[in-house]
Specification:
Layout lengths: L5 H38 L2 H15 L3 H14 L6 H27 L2 H9 L4 H31 L11 H12 L2 H30 L5
Helix pairs in contact: 1-2, 1-4, 1-7, 2-4, 3-4, 4-6, 5-6, 6-8, 7-8
Length: about 220
């Protein structure tokens, strides 16, 4: 058994940095697509709502590892070569969009309809009602569960190791293969994940109390 060296710790911290980068890519990409999903679910024509609902059920019913494998191994078979980071970001973004889309759809629908009716009486068009009346109220409701879901995004980035992307979990595996100290290595990996996820959990609970979402 050997002790951890400075380069190994640096490599592990590099994996932590890539976990943060991948989490941000998944949140931004999934958030943009998820917002479109939410809007389509609430305001789209019936056929659009049905298609989007099918998309949500399909993605939520598919393991994330399968989505990552399709992005990394499936796209090259179609002539589209992708790097592990691109494939991981794409797979996670699609996965996140289905969940954030449903979270935000529920938050939009929880805004009292009387708010939209009052805005309509003020001669605001659909876009103005959405931007100035509905979304600001839905944002307060959506913030706590969205922050809470970010914890799941961070933890799910560990599956990107299956397609060769070196994030925190994969970095721990690589170091363990050379040190043979699984308890020490993976306890350190767990501590680093905790350092990322715990503040988000605390923030989510504080936001929930602040916006009093639990009593709505």
């Amino acid at each position: 058994m050997t002790s951890l060296t400075a380069p190994q710790l640096q490599f592990l911290l590099g994996g932590l940095a890539w976990t943060v980068v991948l989490s941000l890519l998944a949140f931004v990409g999934g958030g943009l697509l998820g917002f479109a999903v939410a809007i389509a679910r609430v305001y789209g024509p019936n056929i659009t709502r049905q298609l989007v609902m099918l998309y949500i059920k399909l993605i939520q019913g598919t393991p994330l590892l399968v989505l990552l494998s399709l992005a990394y191994f499936g796209l090259p078979s179609l002539g589209v070569n992708v790097e592990p980071l691109t494939a991981a970001g794409l797979g996670l973004s699609i996965y996140v969009s289905a969940y954030l889309g449903e979270i935000w759809r529920g938050c939009i629908e929880s805004v009292p309809k009387t708010q939209a009716e009052a805005a309509e009486c003020l001669a605001l068009n659909w876009g103005q009602r959405l931007i100035h009346v509905i979304l600001p109220q839905a944002l307060k409701i959506a913030t706590p569960p969205t922050v809470g879901f970010m914890v799941q995004i961070v933890k799910n980035t560990s599956l990107a190791s299956a397609i060769g992307f070196v994030e925190l979990a994969r970095a721990g595996q690589v170091i363990n293969n050379s040190t043979f100290q699984p308890f020490v290595i993976f306890m350190l990996v767990a501590a680093l994940y905790f350092a990322l996820c715990f503040p988000l959990s605390v923030w989510s609970r504080r936001l929930e109390r602040k916006f009093n979402v639990a009593h709505r």
